[in-house]
Amino acid sequence: MRQQWLILGIVAVLISGCTTTGNKREDSSIPPVPTREVLGAEPQYEPYHPSANQDYQRDGQSYRIVQDSANFTQTGYASGFGEEANGKLTAIGERASPYALAAAHPTLPIPSYVRVTNLSNGRMMIVRINDRGPYNKPGKIIELSRAAAERLNLMPQSRVKLDGIQVAPDGSVSGLGTEGATIVKQSYALPDRPNIGAPAMMSSPSEQNIAEQNTVGQPAVDQNLSGNTENPFLTSPPVGTPSAPKQSETKWILQPQTEPVATSPVTPEPAATSTGGFMVQVGAISSQQKAKEWQQSLSQRFNVQGRIMQFGNVHRVQLGPLSRQQATELQKKLTDQMHQSSFIVAP
């Protein structure tokens, strides 16, 4: 009898151990993946153009249209277009505008959307593909409007990464261009502007300087960033409806260039004829005082003159005047020594 009780006790202990083990659960909670706000054109569902999405040949090269834009990714260099393309017809019959957040790509479906990342400074933007190109520009994978190129602070040596975005008929978005990102509707902020005086400075303004981003009319010389003045847009007659689809209620305030008003130049400028009159613009912020401090810091470090140019409520920080060669050399110093993006402004 005692032996039976002993056996029953052992069985009970074994059953209890199995039950305890079965109730144990590992903590499999995964921390949320951080996301980043991405601005630009708001993706909307648009049917692909019926005749502009066929495989084609140009200059002896074959082009196959991307069938799965959601998984599309590409890395290379970008070129840009400016006023010379204004009003020209795109491949789907729309009127090109340097103030639209648009781009041309040789094989992405049109119209479609893609996230563009400037690998030099980390800036991201969503643009709408509405044309074909660029062509005959080795290494160039996309042609950006002036508005998009300026907001990305793009330079000829800047590498970019493209990630596709697919929009479903119900308006939902998917694709590599949406991973780790939140599409911002009604915001114009760009990445934070670094603290003035820090060893490495970027030209991106902080959120408190959002107002400056509402104006795109920044002067930029090499509007075709590849240095090629050939217009990349196809000028074939429009096919289908010639008007662009209605854009989102979220709009960027894009204004044509007007003559900027100089405010409080730091030092008198020599005659443009002796220097060439080129300026190197490193950034633009809404605070005039911070702009002056930023400009003075850079002028002292690189032993160059500078000025603050006001455009509405935006204050542009520019160094110069310089000759074209001096401006190019200063750009290289800014990049090599401070990882500072910049672009050259013509006289």
Task: Give the key terms.
single chain; 347 residues; alpha+beta; Barwin-like endoglucanases; Alpha-Beta Plaits; 2 domains; six-stranded mixed barrel; five-stranded antiparallel beta sheet; 5 helices; 16 strands
Task: Briefly say what this structure is.
With 347 residues, the chain is of the alpha+beta class. Helix content is 18%, strand content 25%. The protein has 2 domains: 36-200, RlpA-like domain (Barwin-like endoglucanases, Beta Barrel); 261-345, Sporulation related repeat (Alpha-Beta Plaits), CATH 3.30.70.
How would you characterize the overall build of this protein?
The chain has helices at 2-23, 146-151, 272-275, 288-302, 324-338; strands at 36-40, 56-58, 61-63, 73-81, 102-104, 112-118, 124-131, 140-145, 159-167, 173-174, 181-183, 261-262, 278-285, 306-311, 314-322, 343-345. A six-stranded mixed β-barrel has the order 4-8-5-7-6-9. Strands 12-14-15-13-16 form a five-stranded antiparallel sheet. The protein is extended, with a radius of gyration of 27 Å. A hairpin with a 5-residue loop joins strand 6 (112-118) and strand 7 (124-131). The protein contains five helices and 16 strands. It folds into two domains: 36-200, Barwin-like endoglucanases; 261-345, Sporulation related repeat (Alpha-Beta Plaits, 2-Layer Sandwich). It is an alpha+beta fold and 347 residues long. The model is unreliable at 20-28 and 186-274 (pLDDT under 50). The chain starts with a helix and ends with a strand.
